[in-house]
Hints:
The protein is about 50% helix and about 15% strand.
Amino acid sequence: MVWTPLHAKIHRTIRSRHLFERNQRLLIAVSGGQDSLCLIKLLLDLQSKWGWYLGIAHCDHRWRSDSEANANHVENLAKTWDISFYLETANKPINSEAAARDWRYQVLSAIAQANNYQYIVTGHTKSDRAETLLYNLIRGTGADGLQALTWQRPLSTGIVLVRPLLEITRIQTEQFCQEFKLQIWEDSTNQDLQYARNRIRQELIPYLRENFNPQVESALAQTAELLQAEVEYLEKAAQQLREKAMEWGIGDEKDSLTVFPLRLNRRVLQKAPLALQRRVMRQVLQQILTDAPSFEHIEKLTALIIAPNRSQTDPFPGGPIAQVEGDWICFK
Length: 332
């Protein structure tokens, strides 16, 4: 085996960030593109040092006329490497990026659970991290959205999603594939500018690189890395504050699907910075609402912390209302 600087870098990253344990089962999401081929080759070469059992999963979205051939190509690679292969094909073409991502993670989780894999591993790179930060910034988001592409996160019970290549650029994965003569399957949809992420990749990033910062991808990825640590800290602090302020009705259980009656102590919340107040309110709304709370939902609930007695919100989705009763914000 040829040991390159990229092998050494990924080996150190996995060890220093505790991304995987030894002798674990890793399910690698492989599209056939340069990033996922770089990823599987690196993990195959590191396998002897870590004792992993590796499997390959491929998701066919049925977006392209060559998607079946693409799936066959990845399956043949798995056979060449003598790796277990899992294929899932969409029942009908999936027409949006968000829907495709949700379907993909659902499918990968199901495959992992059915075959006892502890980790799902994807080939997201530093370039993807920079693009995600810009994409979410343009759509409108807080720090959580800007750092959304994290090193690891729980995906479902007992399964962790891991992204080991977040310090590697797309240029580096391309060079690696060329060096080892890996057969990349070129995805034509990556050139389709109807998708916002492709416009960011093909037009915005090159413009920023040429006119503002030649190292713009690294700079944006570094920002995401800094924000990740800060978001983790703020979320923990907000959880502690929420637990101090929250009171449940007698006989009600916090883990119950029915969360009422619930009330929050305004005196406790008034002492906290606005950033923590907002995070507490978002955490509370995440328990109450079926969909993710919007900025407007969080703001109108936060406003009750200093609002006059008997103030109340208009109904949130699903019907609940928050009302001020003395020192308490009560949900009804």
